[in-house]
Amino acid sequence: MIDVNDRRVIKRSIEVIKKLSSKLDSIKIMHLCGSHEHVICRYGIRDVLPENISVVPGPGCPVCVTTQREIDTAIYLAEEGYTVATLGDMYRVPGSKKSLMELQSEGADIRIVYGIGDAVKIAEREGREVVFIAIGFETTAPTTAAEVLSVKSRGIDNFYILNCHRQIPPVVEFLLEEGSNIQGFICPGHVSTVTGLKPYYELSSRYRVPMVVAGFEPVDVLMSIVMILRQLVEGECKVENEYRRAVREGGNPMAQKLIKEVFEPVDIPWRGFPVIKNGGLKLRERYREFDIYYQEDIPEMKEVVNSNCICGEILRGEKLPTDCKLFGRYCTPLNPVGSCMVSEEGTCNIFYKYGRFV
Fold this sequence. Notes:
Elements: H1 7-21, E1 27-31, H2 34-42, H3 45-48, E2 53-57, H4 62-65, H5 68-79, E3 83-86, H6 100-105, E4 110-112, H7 116-126, E5 130-136, H8 141-154, E6 159-165, H9 168-177, E7 184-188, H10 189-195, H11 198-207, E8 211-214, H12 218-234, E9 239-241, H13 253-262, E10 263-269, E11 275-283, H14 311-315, H15 347-353
Parallel strand pairs: 1-2, 1-7, 3-4, 3-5, 5-6, 7-8, 8-9
Antiparallel strand pairs: 10-11
Helix pairs in contact: 1-12, 8-13, 9-11
């Protein structure tokens, strides 16, 4: 097992990357996790890569890919008198006219919680109708599923979720199908602790693209780049597990069982993307009593997006925050224009935090 703090391993990884890159043309690798972007920016990994090797951020932030329509729906529900419980990152994401934070200042009942369990406690303790904004990839979906099962078994009838869960493999397939010119993927380790490696096998084989599941230390990211480049040099395209200290081949069967019991795949749009086939999860019919969309007649929400904001292009890996005329001037963490500047997992927020202005 790799010693993640061994400087010699880090130095050797950089040397191997340079050696392998000399045998390749321009290579574009995409990662799918805000935590990977933190590591890349904090430790200057892009600064040590050869000129022909680029690592771009993709749609790896669940807050960022949540659509404006979903934010506006949460705002509508709060205006209708529901108590809306949300994780902190969602609190300041701009809707078409305002954010949940701004709505709270107008008197709406918005609660910041640590997780869905806290939202259920509010419903039990106060007897109010509570809607929890359920976001996240396969990593957080099991927690939502477990709580839905618990709420149902206890007969709680004043708790609902605004379901914004997404799945990673379908968006990878969309990017490849659309001809995004990505030669390799660094896949998020925490998602794979749940799903395992299997969801990537067919994609890697069909599109002939290396995919490496990686951990969250500098050496993990560097080693994943080494593994992708080595595959490309040797003419291979397969799924590899760099994060073996945490990810098993089959993932977490219990978490997978929870997801399968409570959710089913659904076609859904992501911010910056059209509708992605099986890109999301929806509650199965036997649990629809907890889906706010089936309890409330919610009007159609029309998105009003700032034409100067390029969050969509950043999420698709087409541009970086430094390509945006708003970045660091009109759009900052204290005054975010787009979702990518709000969340700590957002690419713009990370670039701003680590002073990546050029």
